[in-house]
Amino acid sequence: TFYWSANGTLDVSDAELGSDSNYGLSAGEVDDNEVFKISYANLLDALDAAGVDVDPGDTDLTGFLIAKINDTTDPANTADLAVALNIELYDGAELTIEDGSLNKTSIDDDDKLVFNFDVDNSGDVDVKARTKFYWSDDASYDDGSDTYLELDGHGTVHADGSKGQSESFSYSQLLTANGGTGTGYIIARVEEVDTGVVHDTVATDQITLEVLV
Asked: Among 99, 212, 107, 95, which residue's Cα sits nearest to residue 168?
């Protein structure tokens, strides 16, 4: 079983990180092919669950990884090893929608509306991202009244990276969302796929749905 310790001495306050089974070793046998892995996110979750205070302003975290081996046939037969570690802390992803533009602001039944934009990640970790689109009667997002249109998945947006995107909408799709002809806006909201945390919300220019003749 593996633990995170502040001082290298195993006690009840240390955060349990995970475990690995050696499946029974014969007398004199050595298992030299063991690997323990834990993701950055799971490490932070384990520290938080154990009450280890990680200040958002910190840039690194110093402590010890303790590996404790237990004899399942003799609970009193244990051994542990502490290894000093220094973990670099990251602020996370920072997603924004940049350079958004429409191919036109007035459409009829023969047209298709296209919204071109970039998804930028100015943060210091990679993140899977997506943008959800809504139809709104004004340029502000309202969870209670705006109509969901569709989403565009962006895959992984790398730290300090950007991805160009393009999303199209049909006249009939927008006409249904608006309840007829008239004007409105498309609201774009970029979020993390795994957490659903929204990072940025932007509105297009006003769009006119023309009356069919």
From this structure: 107
Six-digit token pair at 108? Answer: 């009829």
Kindly state the tokens that stand for 78: 């244990």
Q: How many alpha carbons fall within 13 Å on the CB side of residue 107?
A: 23
Residue 177's φ and ψ, nearest 5 degrees, are -65, -35
Summary count for the chain: helices (H), strands (E): 2, 13
Pair of tokens at residue 11 = 């006690």
Identity of residue 64: F
Structural contact between residues 94 and 118, judged by C-beta atoms closer than 8 angstroms: no
Convert the pLDDT of each residue in 67-121 to its tens digit: 888 777 776 767 777 887 777 666 678 999 999 999 999 999 888 999 999 999 9
66, β-bridge pairs? 3, 82
SS3 79: strand
Under 8 Å between Cβ of 67 and 8: no
Return mean pLDDT, the chain.
86
